[in-house]
Design goal:
alpha+beta; single chain; 3 helices
Length: 132
């Protein structure tokens, strides 16, 4: 792989959660995500910012904000993998993760401009802070 065509790699992430883990995920989860991105200079490399949101049946929010950098070729898989890893990290059982993500499709209609992305993220963070 050329240095000029690096894969889309995780640069940073942070979690903002109402609780540390989900209890009884089998009672129901709501999954969502949104993203924004931009080209880096004149190259085919991009910066991709992704937020995945998991809400449990008790309306506890689990938010993961991540930044990726590299070639855009694999961007849909990166978002799906982030959601899968997010679910695993908050304690959702592997079988349930597989069933929730089996037919999960990443769509271009979840793209937001930078200002919309920031606004949505800040709204979600405010909801978590109010719940504390």
């Amino acid at each position: 792989m050329s240095l000029y065509h690096p894969p889309l790699l995780l640069k940073s992430f942070r979690d903002i959660n109402s609780k540390t883990e989900i209890n009884e995920a089998i009672n129901g989860l709501t999954l969502d995500y949104f993203y924004t991105g931009k080209r880096e200079g004149n190259s085919d490399n991009i910066t991709l910012n992704v937020v995945t949101v998991v809400m449990d049946w008790q309306e506890n929010l689990f938010i993961r904000e991540s930044e990726y950098s590299g070639q855009k070729d694999n961007w849909k898989n990166v978002i799906k993998n982030q959601l899968t890893k997010h679910l695993q990290d908050i304690g959702v059982e592997d079988g349930y993760v597989k069933s929730e993500t089996r037919y999960f499709e990443v769509s271009q209609n979840k793209y937001n401009s930078s200002s919309e992305y920031e606004s949505k993220l800040l709204d979600l963070i405010a909801k978590v802070k109010r719940a504390e």
